Each structure stands twice: as C-alpha cells, then as structure tokens.
Amino acid sequence: MNPELLFTQALGLTSPWAVDDIDFDPKAQRIDFRVSCEAKQLPCPGCGRSDQPIHDRKPRTWRHLDFFQFAAYVHAEVPRVRCGGCKKTTQVEVPWARPGSRFTLLFEAFALTLAKAMPVSTTARQLRTDDRALWRVLDHHVTQAQAREDYSTVTTIGVDETACRRGHHYITLVHDLAERRLIFATPGRDAQTLKGFSEDLASHQGKADQIRHASIDMSKAYISGLGQHLPNAEITFDRFHIIQLANQAVDAVRKSEVRHDARLKRTKWAWLTDMARWSKKQDEAVYDLTRSNLKTARAWRIKEALRDIFQAKPGREQAEGLLKRWHSWARRCRLEPMKRLAATIKRHWAGVLQGFESGLSNGYVEAMNSLIQAAKARARGYGTASHFIAICFLIAGKLKHLPANPFQTPLQRMVAS
C-alpha cells in the first residue's frame, strides 16, 4: 500500500477527497499532509443543488493530532461552488474539520478530553498550540453540546453558588439531582438567576412548573427566586448547610472563649469535625473538654444533638418533635450564637422539615463544587465568567453531544457514559 493511500484511510477520507502528497521534515519536527479534491462538480453547500461547477479553490491549513512526536498538519485547496440556483459562491465544508476552525475534529476532541483533567494552558503546552485558540474550541463545543441537551424530565434540582474569581464574583449553578448533572450556570447569585434558569429550561424542552423539589441553602435571593419563577417547587433546606451554620455558631463561641481559656487553643478543627472522624491527637486533646462546663463544650453538644437528628433520618412527624425539643434547648442556652442559630432554623422551619420528607440534600452539588474549585485552583483562575462556566459544564454537565475521545474504544465510551 502506498503511503498516500494509507494516510487517506487513516484520516477517514473518502472520494472525492484523498491525500496526494506527504512532506516529512524531521528537523522541523513536523509532517504535512496535502489533501486534494478530485471532483469537477459538487452540490451547492447553500441550497443543496447538485452538480454545480467549482468556481475556484482557496488554500487552508489545519492542525491535526501529532504523528508520533511530530506535529501534523493537513493542507487543502478547498473548492468554492458557484451555484446556478441560488446564485451564490459558497465554500464547501471539509469532512475533517468544522467550518471556521483551524484544527481538525480529532484534534479538538482530544483537546476537550485533556481539558477535563488539566488546565487549558497546560493542555495548550502539551499540544503545542495557543491557549486562546483552545478556549475558542472549548467554548464552541460546550455551548453547542449544552444547547442540544433535553431537560424535559427534570423535576428535582439543587441550587448553589460558587466563587468564579477573587472578590465578590459568583456564579449560580443548578443541578439535576436525579441525573446528577449540571444543567444551568450563570453569573450572579440573586433571584434573577432563577428567572434565567426557568427561561433556559423552556429552551431545553422543560417547563418551570414541572420542577417539584428544590434543595437550596437559606439564601433569601434563592428563596425569592424559587417563589417567583418556579412556583411548584417544594423547598428543602440543605442539611449540610444547616450543620455548616451550626459549626459557625460553635466557632463563634470558641473564638470568644479562647481569649480567657488557653485550653481551647489549637482545638478549632476538632470542634467543627464529626467526632467519628477525629484523629487520635484531636481525641486526646478535646474529648475531656467536651464533658466540661466550657461554653464551647455546651455549644458543641447542642450542635452534635442537631447533627444526630439529621443522621438518624426520622420521618417528618418524628423529626418535628425532636427539632422542637432541640430548639427549646438552643433558645434557652444563653449562648448568643446558638440562640441565633435556633432563630434561623425557626424562620425556615417548613423547609428544614421538608428535608426529612424529601430526603434531598446538596451533598452531590457540594462534591461537584469541590471538583470545580480544584480545577480553578490548578488553573490559577479563569479570565472570564464564560470560560469558568464552560469548565463547569465540562466537569459536571455530563454533556452527551461533545466529540468523543479519539483514543477511547467504543466499549470505553459506553462505560464512561
């Protein structure tokens, strides 16, 4: 088999396209494939009218996947068709690249695969190309793939915020909790973000009134947004967020008391960590303190009692009785941070109890946020919110219409999906 025919098949080309020349330059560390179109007539790319004459040919170059350690490029003089029907002169599309791109489809698919696991700047260095060009590839494919998603079956969502850049720059993330996938992301964290979600849902075959359950933190903005734009959604206040508020209250008591009691120095994380996960050092340092009359110890016992209620997972009716007794204890404890915590839970009573009925939490959402923030840390931040959102969808969106990894077998793709 001659090399031109071999690489014609390797590139997946069919008539009238074929490799007609190969230029290998080991000193320049590159290999160039020259592809020609043998046809004299082609269908019009605009209106589809068949057998239209070729008007002229324009030279184009695309970066391809490396050939061993050598950078590979595809060159072609791309025909433009002069159509007698629509009277337009239009350039035909080549089978190995999308219109307007300077990379082949296989190169772009591999770049997307790498970008899931490493910063785009690192991916660009590995592929020996420009990171700005890769961002254009990533933004294009993620936007196109997300636009094709079907959200007609979404009924249960988790809403949370995550930091986009330093300072007060946040985006709101909405996840489908049943399918465990990110379905919406937008800059901001106010009530209008959920208006944007309801509109985006409609563009993906969904309806705002089909959302029956929503797990959120106690953000006033999200509560208001759900009431205005997703009126059928029963609100569950995420139990992890409630325990986080309880931890903050305990730490506030500790900070006030540590100034007067040296025993509390270097014990912060033990008071905030589940006792079952204490290290041996934490256990030795703190266990006796938990049984003392320290204010911090009293606050910790109140917090642990609340944690025990959530971990027991009682039914709604039983949970209400347990929470009433807990609330009475916390309200009368004479520790201002714990009293404020009790008041906060009382103000959000219905949503807290709904969690025992729905069983929902934002545990999965928080796990995805951790992955997203880890990616941001590796990249040392992203220049724009749109870039950050693209990475969020790449990591957590489970997008079905992204180009497949060219090095995966069909079985591996099936398992990955």
UniProtKB/TrEMBL annotation:
TM ranges are none
The answer to whether the entry has keyword Zinc-finger is no
Span of domain Transposase IS204/IS1001/IS1096/IS1165 zinc-finger: 43-86
InterPro entries (UniProt xref) = Transpos_ISL3, Transposase_DDE, Transposase_HTH, Transposase_Znf
Keyword annotations for this protein, in alphabetical order, are:
Plasmid
The Transposase IS204/IS1001/IS1096/IS1165 helix-turn-helix domain is annotated at: 92-142
Query: What is any Pfam family matched here?
Result: HTH_Tnp_ISL3
Write the protein's name: Transposase, IS204/IS1001/IS1096/IS1165 family protein
Q: Which residues form the Transposase IS204/IS1001/IS1096/IS1165 DDE domain?
A: 157-390
In the UniProt record, does the keyword Transport occur?
no
